[in-house]
Amino acid sequence: MNKSYCLLIACCLLLVKVQAKITLSSILGDNMVLQQNSKLHVTGKATPAKFVSVVASWSAEKLQTKSTKNGDWEIILPTPAAGGPYTLTFSDGEKLVLKNILIGEVWFCSGQSNMEMPVKGFRGQPVYGSQQYIVSSDEERPLRLFTVQNSWSTIPKSDGIVGHWSQSSSKEVADFSATAYFFGELLQKTLKIPVGLINCSWSASKIEAWMDKETLSRLPEVELPDVNQTEFGWPAGTPTLLWNAMVSPWKGFPVKGVIWYQGEANSPAPDLYKKLFPAMVAQWRQFFELLDMPFYYVQIAPWQSEGKEKLDWALFRQCQLELMHEVPNVGMVTTTDVGSETFIHPPYKIKVGQRLAYWALAKTYGKQGFQYSGPIYRSCKLNAQVVEVTFDYGEDGLIPENQKLKGFELAGADGKFLPAQAEIIGGSSTVKVWNDSIKEPVEVRYCFRNYLEGDLFNNAEIPASPFRAMIEK
User: Which of these, 115, 196, 310, 445, has the minimum number of CB atoms within 10 Å of its CB?
Assistant: First the structure.
């Protein structure tokens, strides 16, 4: 009896000790990157009503707080300029140490399957040129990766993210988001400071799933789910579910900006997307406490959808183009050269990721001397029977000069579109477009099909965005 009693007491003491050990939010761990010059809200559990101290190896200051009667605690941790590796030591009498922490630039990478698609590709759907990046990846490189495991919830969560911060080993790189990786790879190489990438994506997800209840409640077109419902046939297409489980727990974790590759699931309703996207950007900026947070997104690439000559994806791209002018501090990657007629997941993710990096390097980090966007429609006017279309981001020239361009169409008063001839006016950022059978054209468009790869680029070899426009008299 005495032996059994002593064993019971020992087990209870061990249990108390285990329960008293400090635990942290699941998004914090070894190998993580923290946003430089920011304030991290660190939360966790400890022994109830006990002092918790935090010591960061980059600072001589010891931070301290007291846990609540439930053991909850929070400390705001200032971060320095980029550097590392560092350690973070937590203690309520028993120490917990996080190691190999870097300070640098953190980007949140979200969307649907074209963001989710890994560097190694999907089965039978490769990412062209990725093998050399996988083979040559270096764990010592200050480029760290975090993939959020897919989950959903009908109510916002404050914790429960499943995932881990990893170094850039070949295995981790192969399984990480290709678009996000090639964005961060060029960013880190150029800035020469640590970069952290958070991949938070889900195949076939709609934008509504990544937004909160408060924002969506202002849009009567969106039907919010019943919070008591336990099963959903399409969680990734149901409003609020992914936000609640996959984004909400990142509250208090500073980031520099967002890259976004999504839209295919919303392509049937571009008019609604015109309302949803600005609302989402505003909501995420408020959530990350950065009201001018850069938000760079990808225009959906050419794909046949329900037929390559149809216009549903073309209309959605027009919506994305217009949003570029309507939402502040955003940028759009053009993709008319990277599509695949038969696969919704184009294999040219290196180009997409690097073009996202061009936007960030130019607009967020102030790098100069290079073009960061493809040609974007600015205006058009009628000169006799010829329509002159002028583009932004063509100041260094448009290509190919001295040859006919494909993809342009004109319509007269009857609204019937016909193929048009088009040439770059040499040494300018203007294209002349004409069709001898249309005497008074009223509308012009370019690559306005579900699947039609264009050949108009600027000198940086970034393609022009598809567009449609009424012609100024």
Answer: 310
Q: Supply the pLDDT for residue 12.
A: 43
Mean pLDDT of 377-387: 95
Domain ranges of the chain: 21-102, 105-364, 376-470
> What pTM, to 2 d.p., does this model score?
0.94
Buried b (16+ CB within 10 A) or exposed e, 253-273: bbbbbbbbbbbbbbbebbebb
**Domain 21-102: which topology?**
Immunoglobulin-like (2.60.40)
DSSP class of 472: B
In whole angstroms, what is the distance from residue 258 CA to residue 426 CA?
A: 37
What is the assigned CATH class of domain 376-470? mainly beta
| Residue pair 283/346 in contact by the 8 Å Cβ criterion | no
- CATH number 3.40.50.1110 is the correct assignment for the domain at 105-364: yes
CA–CA distance, 368 with 372 (Å, rounded to integer) = 9
Q: How confident is the model at residue 14 (pLDDT cuts 50, 70, 90)?
A: very low
Cβ atoms of residues 36 and 195 within 8 Å: no
Closest CA to 57 of 87, 101, 99, 100: 87
